[in-house]
Every structure is written in C-alpha cells, then in structure tokens.
C-alpha cells in the first residue's frame, strides 16, 4: 500500500522542480558574482551533474524571468526587508528571487511550496540562520502577493 505523498509520476515531477530550483539557485549565485546573459548561464548549467533529474523547462523559466526582472524583484524585496537586496548573502538573495518569482508569476505553485522550497535551500546552502530570515521575508510577501491563499 502507498504511504501517501502522491503518485509516482507526480512525485517525480515535484522532485524535478526541486532540482530545477536548486540548480537555478546555484546559477543565480554565480550570476550575482559575475553577471552574464541568462543564456550563458543556461548553457553553462546544461552539463550540471543533476540536470538530468531537473525540470529543464522550469530551470530555464526561472533563469530567464529572474535575470530579466531582477530589478523589479529586488524592488519588491526591498519593501519587505530591513536591508537592501545587494547587502544580502548571495545564497539567500538567489533563494528569495526564486521564491518571489514563484509567488508573483507562478500561481500554480502554492505559496507554502514556494516558501518551503526556499527555506530548505537556505537551510542547506545558506548562512547559519539565513533560513529564518528567508522564511520571515517570504511570509510577509506571500501575505501581500497572495492574500486569497492566506
């Protein structure tokens, strides 16, 4: 008997999106340190070890949208934080950009999923308590961007 959590294909699709988010976080981290066109990042990360497990289309969507819209996303982030986005640790900044994009442009991604995925990435790759900061900022933004879901 199944232990829950959805069917095999649905679970695989969710995992592929999680891998795409992680790779996007890594690409955006690199992008913050050395700006380049999103297409270069896409090409660079095509050969990443985990790309075969990722939702490639979602990875591309995240990179393209966030690189194109980063100034608008940073303006929204700035309103929800006590510091400028440029002062953030690059991991937390990348994670916040991904989740903010999902909250604002991906209504099919539940707000709890966007926040949970971001907090998980920040916990795994960010500074010691960075995940708490990420959670607080995204909770504020989710209340504002998706009030009907709260």
How would you sum up this structure, described in words?
The protein is an all-alpha fold and 150 residues long. It has one domain: NusB-like (N-utilizing Substance Protein B Homolog, Chain A, Orthogonal Bundle), CATH 1.10.940. Helices cover 70% and strands 0% of the residues. The chain has six helices and no strands. The chain has helices spanning 8-33, 38-45, 56-79, 90-105, 111-125, 130-145. The longest helix is centred in the N-terminal third of the chain and has 26 residues, at 8-33. The N and C termini lie far apart (33 Å).
- Assign the CATH class: Mainly Alpha
| pLDDT averaged residue by residue | 93
CATH homologous superfamily designation:
NusB-like
Terminal CA distance = 33 Å
CATH architecture label? Orthogonal Bundle
Helix content: over 70%
Number of strands: 0
Order of helices and strands: HHHHHH
Largest sheet: none
Measured on Cα atoms, how large is the radius of gyration?
15 Å
Approximately how much beta-strand content do the residues carry?
Answer: under 5%
Q: Uncertain regions: pLDDT < 50 for 5+ in a row?
A: 1-5
Class per helix and strand makeup: mainly alpha
User: How many separate domains make up the residues?
Assistant: 1
CATH fold node name? N-utilizing Substance Protein B Homolog, Chain A
Helical segment tally? Answer: 6
């Amino acid at each position: 008997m199944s232990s829950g959590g959805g069917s095999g294909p649905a679970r695989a699709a969710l995992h592929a999106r999680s891998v795409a988010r992680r790779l996007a976080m890594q690409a955006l981290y690199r992008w913050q340190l050395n700006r380049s066109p999103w297409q270069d990042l896409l090409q660079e990360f095509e050969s990443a070890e985990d790309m075969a497990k990722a939702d490639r289309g979602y990875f591309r969507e995240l990179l393209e949208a966030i690189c194109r819209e980063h100034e608008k996303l940073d303006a929204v982030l700035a309103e929800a934080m006590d510091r400028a986005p440029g002062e953030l640790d690059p991991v937390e900044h990348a994670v916040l950009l991904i989740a903010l994009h999902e909250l604002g442009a991906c209504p099919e991604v539940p707000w709890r999923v966007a926040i949970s995925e971001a907090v998980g990435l920040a916990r795994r790759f960010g500074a010691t308590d960075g995940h708490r900061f990420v959670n607080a900022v995204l909770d504020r933004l989710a209340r504002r961007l998706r009030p009907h879901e709260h």
